[in-house]
Design a protein that fits this description.
This protein has 364 residues and is of the alpha/beta class. The protein is built from 15 helices and 9 strands. α12 links the parallel β7 and β8. α2 packs parallel to α15, α8 runs parallel beside α10 and α12 runs parallel beside α13. The structure holds (3S,4R)-3-hydroxy-2-oxopiperidin-4-yl beta-D-xylopyranoside. The site of (3S,4R)-3-hydroxy-2-oxopiperidin-4-yl beta-D-xylopyranoside has 10 residues, from α1.
Length: 364
Amino acid sequence: MKHRLFLALAIVVLVPLAIAFGVRSTPSAPTPAPSMEISTATSLRSLAQKRGISIGAAVELEPFYNDANYRQVLAREFNTLVPENAFKFQFLHPNPDRYDFSHVDRLVEFAKAHNMQVRGSPLVWHYAQPDWLNQGKFTREELLGILQTHIQTVVGRYRGQVFAWDVVNEALNRDGSLRDTIWLRHIGPEYIDLAFRWAHQADPNARLFYSDYGNDELGRKANAMYTMVSGLLQRGVPIDGVGMQTHKRLGYAPRLNLLSENIGRLEKLGLEVQFTELDITIQDGTGSREERLMKQAQTYRSLLQTCLAFKNCTAFITWGFTDRYTWLGSLTGQLEAPLLFDESYRPKPAYNAIEDVLSSHSGK
Ligand code: XIL
């Protein structure tokens, strides 16, 4: 119960706070990201390749443009990158008639140069929307037009270059009801079906996902999501899978039996599951910092093991990769140390755990 309360607190208080204070403006004058010769012979990505799983990280623009170590570790270790913010409506489509693709283009170019996949997130979200959209007065028809044009312009531009999209992000409340957003309010629940259909028209080969937090272990929200995606499938809506963000704190990771049941029943529906935004903060664990880092490693280990036990679990993506740059830092001012590399790009126990599972696991 205590566990639930903490989780609720984290989601209700911390996530909106982080989002409110953390949404960064994009750097205005990008310097070129030089191409590099990087050996990936002994890296997570070479191991992940053999397991047939995407291993990825979210990428922030500031370090991407300005920190060569960041780019080097990114390309060496991961076969998948997700622009952490650059795909968001607010940054990509700042005025009704203007898109700014410059940052995503640079990331896509980098991914190509290093033989990485790009994951796009999100197309429809209630957050990180521009003022012109939040404050505008639109009829239903106008909003339908705005959403269709946005999705088809963005997905169409990156057709064949973005292997998977979070088409709709965080559409559900904790109790399983649909979140009150401008899309729901003015279009109705069918905005979800339409978003998937439009995305599919724009790139029939891209894998399309519904993504959320708090949907990893069985519970009210996971059940509501299950009902929702079952409905999409019944109506012939082109959805390929479900993204589980999995932002966690030590001791509050999804219970593995409930997570497995959830992944298993999505598999029966024919859907993929991807861990899309993993991070595990160590702030609240008990014990020394070293002990907490070991527990963190254990949590990453068991999540990856669970993923590898299912054929339909196809990606393991962390929200950043070095503790030097994480969206959580701006929240508390403390080093939450949620990722695989420390602030100096040294692999942490969590990295070693993942390396170990990828080398030894017999699943898939
Ligand atoms: C976060 C970014 O990491 C922050 O930099 C930004 O300020 C706010 O958004 N769920 C999501 C992600 O789907 O897009 C969010 O990313 C984190 C929560």
